[in-house]
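hiii so um. not sure if this is the right channel but i have a protein structure encoded as tokens and i wanna go backwards to a sequence. like what aa goes where. can anyone help
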């Protein structure tokens, strides 16, 4: 009986969050270990399907850097990075489109469907969804690396309104229709803003934002984040992630979370429990 009561209490704890997020858009950037570990993949799929069935509108934006890197190695194409951004010449861009649009995206669609849901795969280049300009970085030519200018959410909204989960590959197109490689965090943030999402979740391979003593901070305001960057507590690869969150908050997204994707059912724990398993960033 105690076990049954404990289960009931979990549902009671989740009820206020179900009310809050009902019929709201939740944009989830899916990457890292959550994409590669079979148990975490199944856990993520169940989380997304459950969100859909209880009345939320999940949108998945996925990465695929490791898969791209492996394919480039097999094809004998050298790869280089500048501040975490993959230098993308024409040959590399062909591989990016092939891997993201032709391999990773369909795999995630199938994963959601195996979990009992329905999903449709899209790329940011479809229907002018993600418009970009060529990203400039000091004196280095990064090639076809895109900086998001705007997002037309019409195709995403149409897929979601039809009862499917949109699964989006981070590829954008410039004014001439030339495709570009887009950072998945940046794409997720821009899509969240365009959809007026209630929540943005960035799945990562770290526990969350840490303070000067290395302890995970469960909740931060946008101004707190800026101060931690100034003093060097937030640094390296965490900086673009928190910047992505702050930009989303400034453009209407209610809250954003940097979430430990190595935890089973991390998305459900974040949305429907009081504690969560990452760092919640608010306005």
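sure thing!! here u go:
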């Amino acid at each position: 009986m105690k076990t049954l009561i404990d289960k009931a209490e979990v549902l009671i704890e989740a009820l206020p969050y179900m009310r809050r997020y009902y019929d709201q858009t939740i944009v989830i950037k899916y990457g890292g270990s959550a994409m590669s570990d079979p148990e975490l993949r199944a856990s993520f799929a169940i989380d997304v399907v459950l969100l859909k069935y209880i009345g939320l509108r999940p949108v998945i934006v996925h990465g695929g850097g490791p898969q791209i890197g492996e394919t480039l190695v097999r094809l004998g194409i050298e790869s280089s990075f500048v501040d975490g951004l993959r230098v993308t010449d024409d040959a590399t861009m062909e591989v990016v489109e092939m891997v993201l649009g032709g391999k990773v995206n369909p795999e995630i669609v199938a994963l959601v469907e195996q979990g009992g849901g329905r999903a449709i795969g899209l790329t940011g280049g479809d229907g002018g969804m993600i418009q970009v300009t060529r990203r400039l970085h000091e004196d280095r030519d990064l090639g076809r690396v895109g900086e998001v200018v705007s997002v037309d959410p019409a195709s995403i909204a149409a897929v979601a309104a039809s009862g499917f989960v949109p699964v989006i590959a981070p590829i954008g197109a410039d004014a001439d229709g030339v495709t570009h490689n887009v950072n998945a965090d940046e794409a997720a943030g821009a899509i969240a803003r365009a959809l007026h999402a209630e929540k943005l979740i960035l799945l990562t391979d770290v526990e969350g934002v840490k303070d000067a003593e290395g302890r995970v901070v469960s909740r931060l305001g946008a101004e707190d984040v800026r101060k931690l960057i100034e003093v060097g507590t937030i640094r390296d690869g965490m900086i673009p992630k928190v910047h992505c969150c702050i930009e989303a908050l400034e453009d209407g997204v209610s809250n954003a979370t940097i979430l430990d994707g190595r935890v089973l059912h991390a998305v459900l724990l974040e949305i429907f429990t009081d504690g969560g398993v990452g760092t919640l960033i608010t306005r």
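oh and The radius of gyration is 19 Å.
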